[in-house]
Design brief:
The chain is of the alpha+beta class and 248 residues long. The protein has 12 helices and 8 strands. It is 56% helix and 12% strand. Helix 5 crosses helix 8 and helix 6 crosses helix 12. The longest helix has 18 residues.
Length: 248
């Protein structure tokens, strides 16, 4: 069989087929595409070629369990999302950077509530209610403001006071408003976005949030090693609370 720079033509063809499939579907499951999955997992050269194509496209190609994922890097605005795009999707029309960082804080809070970074699996619970998430956000913002004064925010790397200001500027609506100018609507649009990305299941009628296998695997295998987990906890003000808040 013809070779090109040490690779057989069939290996190159298979790697291109796998990468195109990942571009289209973002993931490749063994149960749905056994031939492509086996080509990636059993042929080192094919896997190397797929990962190389991912590098060029500013993506990582990772296998968690029996699923291969295409994961855009932070700077990938073509396959991923830019800051401006996220602000438009998640925040109100006249949103500032305060609103954008608040939306990211909400997502981090959700992750920490579901995943504790301990044991063989980082997942610590199966579901949570939207009202509970809202209470957690309010609590962690208050903790952050209390333990990180404005003059120390630059060193801490997070402006709790600005995010608190943005959160308090959102109205409360017990009728379950979907407007991004309300706390309830703000959370709704973030949850809908995460669901669209295949990361959570958001059962609106029950106001219940569950994580998907995709997010569970990603957190277990990639994000929540202890270094990442401790950094997330520090960002959320948990470290400060544990060090000084318990004795108040």
């Amino acid at each position: 069989m013809e070779e090109i720079m040490g690779y057989e033509v069939e290996e190159i063809r298979q790697s291109q087929e796998i990468f195109y499939y990942l571009l289209e579907h973002h993931e490749l499951q063994e149960e749905k595409e056994q031939l492509l999955y086996r080509a990636y997992t059993e042929q080192e050269k094919v896997q190397s070629l797929v990962k190389s194509q991912g590098e060029i496209a500013l993506c990582s190609v990772e296998r968690y369990g029996n699923v291969i994922y295409l994961i855009p890097r932070e700077e990938n605005n073509f396959l991923g999302f830019s800051k401006a795009q996220l602000k438009s999707v998640l925040c109100k029309s006249n949103a500032t950077d305060k609103d954008y960082y608040l939306s990211q804080f909400v997502i981090l809070t959700l992750l920490v509530e579901f995943f504790d970074g301990q044991g063989s699996s980082s997942k610590s619970r199966e579901y949570m209610r939207v009202g509970e998430l809202q209470n957690c956000i309010s609590k962690r913002l208050k903790e952050g403001v209390r333990h990180v004064p404005p003059e120390e925010e630059a060193q801490a790397g997070i402006a709790f006071s600005n995010m608190m200001e943005a959160y308090e500027a959102l109205r409360s609506d017990e009728k379950g408003s979907r407007a991004k100018t309300t706390k309830e609507g703000f959370l709704h649009h973030i949850l809908m976005f995460l669901q669209k990305q295949g990361l959570i299941e958001y059962v609106e009628e029950d106001e219940m949030i569950k994580t998907t296998r995709k997010l569970d695997s990603f957190m277990d295998w990639n994000l929540l090693n202890q270094n990442h987990y401790q950094r997330i906890q520090k960002v959320l003000g948990e470290a400060a609370r544990l060090e000084g808040g318990e004795n108040e």
